[in-house]
Amino acid sequence: MLLKEYRVVMNCTEEEYQVAQLYAVAEQSKEETGDGDGVEVRKNEPYENEFGKGQYTYKVYHLTNKVPGWVRSFAPKGSLELYEEAWNGYPYCKTGNNGYMKENFELTIETMHVGNSRGEIDNALKLSEEELKMREVTIIDIANDKVDKKDYRADEDPSLYTSEKTGRGPLKGDWIPTVEPVMTCYKVVRIKFVWRLLQNKVEAFIASTVRSLFTNFSRKLFCWTDKWYGMTMEDIRALEEKTKHELDEKRKQNAEKAS
């Protein structure tokens, strides 16, 4: 198993980020859906249990056309559907992914969102001593970290973007120690892939993919500040419901075209 901790410093408040991330998830889901692949939202409803309350979502990621050829070449039929359960009890959130391989595949992400933090908290998610020994920590700098050429867009570059509504940005040079407002997303990722001869290669591929996803998502979120700034949670729930119907229709139409 690999255990990675990513710390994503953001130029917003903890309260703003709750709305911003939900807005960005909805918008990015639309971008990634096409050719019969993409995100299918099966449940999106409030939950309350012994651990607290929040919003529960159950999604299916259809990935056949979105993974490298070497993965498709050995993947059995039906194995390229990933099931995600998420419990968003902000500021703590947890997602768990499973699919064809069941107990032989684990991808869990625990996140703690902390206001007025610049990535300096050593153990925000209360890992055990054993897990701390396994952990590898990475600070993600959304303005300066390199992104894949195919993912780069000038209008999603925090080093170029200025928010008209808030005056935030562009994020230049060594911005993390001084930017205001500030908060950090502390993300602990656990990756297990039990498949003889392929375990290390696939776990490393998943870790690299997850880091890229966090980086690209966070860059978009910041550069979409003027789109989500001022929205309420009621606005977000309405957007999520509208997005669900749009995703279902888009996947259906593209699947019909491809058949």
Automatic annotation (TrEMBL):
The record's section on SUPFAM superfamilies has:
Bet v1-like (SSF55961)
Q: Which residues form the Phosphatidylinositol transfer protein N-terminal domain?
A: 1-244
Gene3D superfamilies, alphabetized? 3.30.530.20
A Pfam short name: IP_trans
Q: Which InterPro entries match?
A: PI_transfer (IPR001666), PI_transfer_N (IPR055261), START-like_dom_sf (IPR023393)
Hey, what's the signal peptide range on this chain? none
What GO MF terms are annotated?
Answer: phosphatidylcholine binding; phosphatidylcholine transporter activity; phosphatidylinositol binding; phosphatidylinositol transfer activity
Any one Gene Ontology cellular component term annotated for this protein: cytoplasm
Q: What is this protein called?
A: Phosphatidylinositol transfer protein N-terminal domain-containing protein
- The organism named in the record is Thamnocephalis sphaerospora
